[in-house]
Design goal:
single chain; mainly beta; Porin; 3 helices; disordered N terminus
């Protein structure tokens, strides 16, 4: 499916819905404490900090920022992927192991945080009947720097909307990525539904490399999902992710994602998740046989800069 301008606008419709909800959503009955004066160098007191939240494990980012002066670390201990997709439809499989992908967060103000996301160790093995011999590449991946701003709902209300700008920096070794800087922008939101459910989603635009052409392509993604506490400190989510892109040989892709999160302490959680991959060119039956399943354990913790 081509990513044409006339298709992008309708795909952003749910963001318009979120904006409408923002105008009609009632604020909490009790006004929240004004925390606008707190900064990186004058941290938010512990008793005034908002509930702990992370940008993982779903593909949708959180619209919430961490409080001023807070350091938060989110890590994928292990992430394994099997990818059987290739444009030529040859019998080639790519196995990727990622270790210690870490998101370092620093609260700058009450409504903005800085994130540095090195990819960590990468091992990629390519094999299949259409290759003469299997190939294994080991090294380190790229680093992404992100700035997140909360637009509404950081501390109260049913709706929260954020704005994320990011820049991928080519720090990879052994040709495990390209040598280009790739910017991106995201607009995530959360909305509290009856029954303890949370409806979440995001529209994201990334300017990526078009391989073997020297050009750039635009990728638009729109994950949506729901989450809910299951029992005590255990919660789960179900998410559908889809992406379309300009350029050649970039079909529509979608994943069905699910995961569990266990809150060990108020400032520490672990999770496990998986997703199953499909693309438009193979059709429904082939999609059921072709899967891409990373399983990760994410450990996140939060500390004060002081």
């Amino acid at each position: 499916m081509p990513c044409c301008p006339h298709r992008i606008f309708p795909c952003l419709c749910y963001v318009g819905l979120a904006a409408t909800l923002a105008l009609t959503s009632a604020r909490a009955e009790n006004p929240t404490t004004d925390k606008s004066a707190y900064t990186l160098f004058d941290p938010t007191p512990i008793d005034l900090r908002r509930a702990y939240n992370t940008d993982r494990p779903s593909k949708t980012d959180s619209p919430y920022t961490i409080d001023a002066g807070v350091v938060q670390i989110e890590m994928d201990i292990a992430n394994w992927m099997l990818d059987e997709y290739n444009v030529d439809r040859t019998d080639v499989r790519v196995y990727t192991l990622l270790l210690a992908q870490t998101n370092f967060k620093l609260g700058l103000t009450n409504w903005m945080d800085l994130q540095i996301f090195p990819q960590g160790y990468v091992e990629r093995r390519t094999s299949g009947r259409d290759l003469r011999a299997s190939q294994t590449i080991r090294g380190f991946g790229d680093t992404t720097v992100r700035l997140k701003i909360n637009l509404i709902g950081n501390d109260d209300g049913k709706l929260a909307i954020g704005l994320i700008s990011s820049l991928k920096i080519p720090t990879n070794t052994n040709h495990l990525g390209n040598n280009l800087y790739e910017p991106g922008f995201g607009l995530p939101f959360n909305y509290a539904l009856p029954g303890g459910f949370i409806f979440f989603g995001q529209t994201r635009i990334d300017i990526l490399d078009e391989p073997h052409s020297g050009n750039r392509r635009v990728q638009r993604s729109n994950p949506i999902g729901v989450s809910r506490a299951i029992v005590r400190n255990l919660s789960g989510y179900l998410e559908f992710y889809d992406a379309v892109s300009t350029g050649r040989n970039h079909p529509w892709t979608g994943t069905l994602d699910t995961g569990l999160i266990y809150q060990v302490t108020p400032n520490f959680s672990v999770d496990v998740n998986s997703f199953f991959w499909a693309d438009a060119q193979r059709g429904r039956r082939e999609c059921l046989r072709r899967i891409r399943t990373p399983i990760l354990t994410n450990a996140a913790s939060q500390n004060d800069t002081n």
